[in-house]
Amino acid sequence: MKLKSRFLLWFIFVTIAIYGTLFATGFYIWNGMSEAQRNEVSIIFQANSTLIISSMIAFFVTMGFAMNWLFNSYMMPLGRMVEEIEIINTVNPSYRLKVEGGGGIRRLAGMVNRAADTLESLQKDVNEKIHDASRSIEEEKNTFASLIAELNEGVIILNNDGVILLYNRMAQEFFSTAKAGDGIGLGRSVFSVIDRNLLGHALDDIMEQMKRENTHPASYFIVLSKKGHLLNVEAVPILNQRHQMTGTILIMYDITKQMESESKRELVITNLSEGFRSAIAGIRAASEILMDYKDLTIEEKEKFLKIIHDESMKMSLLVEENTLGISLHTQWPLADILASDLIIMLKMKLEDRLGFHAEIDSVGEEFAFLQVKAESFTFLHGFLFLASEVSRMRRTRDFKLNLTKHDKFTGVNLRFDGDVILPEELSNIITGAMSTTGEQLPLSLKEIISRHRGEIWSASDKQGSYIRILLPLHEVKNDKSKTRRSISLGSRPEFYDFNLFSRPGMSTDLDNVPLSELTFTIFDTETTGLDPSGGDKIISIGAFRALNGRLLKTEIFETLVNPKKRMFKDSIAIHGITNEMLIGQPEMNEVMPAFYKFCEGTVLVAHNAAFDMRFLELQGKDLGIQFTNPVLDTLLLSATAHPNQQNHSLEQIAERMGIPIVGRHTALGDAIVTGEVFLRLIAILQTQGIRTLKEAREASEKTFYARIKY
């Protein structure tokens, strides 16, 4: 009950008590009088009845005015002051009391504000010291999270219920689709993207390995993502100090191209095997006849020789048709490396390992973003071996290195003074056993170049002799939108939340779960008008998820909706969405199922939620969709937390709590402000003993605003 209502009841009670006491006293005196005394009093009362009644009314009115002044000058400001001090202590240390009311209250407000200034200053000093003390720990955690986020492999960490605790950008890319609300996210179940039976079998396998005391238990399986990626998934358990499994790490490798390549190779081998078997049978039969029958005529011999020729040509044609563009070599794990970095590394090793003098010709801008595919360890040793052989054969220790571009290849050139290396000399170099600085390698230089899918030759030009090795080129455009983002240790990535290890399972009765442990979908809608029952429609939905006191602004749902009706200027003036902007946008029969899936398993939160939920109810009914999620309203929660505040608009609540408003009257912008408000309200409600979903809902139902219907 509001302070004003309580004060009014108290005023009525006091008034009744005063007048009741007066009447009771008068009645007692009246009963103790004699008949003559009563007659005298009656005469006096009748003569002065107007004055007595007027005095009683004047006393009542005067007392009313006095009590109203007392209430407005002292009681009401004190009530607001208590709520505002609570805001300072819980969510917004920068907030200051409004100096209003009587002189004593105004002086008290000023003293509280000065105390708040001092407290905020002290808190800042303490926070800075805490920040300095914990900076190294935070940097290590952020480094870990950032490195996980930037890995080329997809990574997802789960708790034992299959709820996602961490994921990185690559995993998000594997499983996200163009459909809004689809994919993975913190607090969501992994079983929406990976079959429950498939993962369950892998976990059973891990448990069996742990029973056999396998020191490194792991299980592997293949999954096809919704984007068509074929993923090789490695499941590794997370163990606590008691060697109990508390979660699972899923590491995903995209093997789509590898499997395609393997399938092509397998098809080539099958075709060659079947074709060769038939051709070899024909050649063998013809050659045996020629060997066994010496007295064949020339015509007969030519006939069988033609069979041998035709079958050999068939084999040759079969090889050409099946191996064109297909590499039958074992695929090495070649990595992308900048060509400019590679040539610098070669220069350093030529000087450090072999003691040669090496110079690099200027590398032009065209090579600034060129990458080659190479296995740097073996290529480096092969290149050093090549340089040492050229040094031995041409008696030189001075070399120059440069790069040239050849269509889909980059040429790495080893230049030297002296005669060109002849083809037969180069053949001996690349086919012989390799050894550099005492290290013997099991591969020849020819094998290394072949497995790099490259070429090698020697030649000369005006600048002198050189040997050129071609490596496959991978060109990277200088496009900021596609280059990898730098890792900033000052900003904590929003792809993880380790507190979810102890999060209650979704099977727990949500009514009894603390608000701080629930998963929320905070949303807002923009509409064609304010009358959902009269035919107005949703034209925009903006939402994002929140859990463990954090807003996950990377997990958003935002879309315009084509309402299939035109809007009036009054509506456009509020949200700025024009009729032209809605042309070609998805309709509600596509948006509603996606939003329903995005909200699955969460508590819905909105400001003035009854308005938004009415639209969802009416438009969802036509599509057979019913939102059964629990709903919380920041309007009602604010009225619960601060019953003496007169204004509970989103702007006023945000101002009280020190929340900047950005993007007001856009669905996503309002949802973000609502989310910031909601998290601060949770902290305030906890100080009032409202901690669970049930307690928050029951308290909201008692407010005046809960009567509003749409």
Describe the structure.
The chain folds into 5 domains: 3-103, no CATH class; 151-254, Beta-Lactamase (2-Layer Sandwich); 258-323; 335-475, Heat Shock Protein 90; 504-707, 2-Layer Sandwich (Nucleotidyltransferase, domain 5), CATH 3.30.420. The chain starts with a helix and ends in a 9-residue tail after the last helix. It has 19 helices and 19 strands. The strands form 4 sheets. Strands 6, 7, 8, 9, 10, 13 and 14 form a 7-stranded mixed beta sheet that branches. Helix 9 packs across helix 10 and helix 16 (634-641) packs parallel to helix 18 (667-687). The chain is 49% helix and 19% strand. Strand 13 and strand 14 (464-475) form a beta hairpin. The chain has 710 residues and is α+β, with helices and mostly antiparallel strands.
Descriptors:
710 residues; alpha+beta; Beta-Lactamase; 7-stranded mixed β-sheet; 19 strands
**CATH class designation of the largest domain:** Alpha Beta
Summing up helix and strand content along with how strands pair, one would put the structural category as alpha+beta
Shape: elongated
Q: How many beta-strand runs? A: 19
- The low-confidence parts are 476-508
Helix content: 40-55%
Fourth-level CATH superfamily of the largest domain: Ribonuclease H-like superfamily/Ribonuclease H
- The fraction of residues in strands falls at 15-25%
Number of helices: 19
- The CATH topology of the largest domain is Nucleotidyltransferase, domain 5
The CATH architecture category of the largest domain equals 2-Layer Sandwich
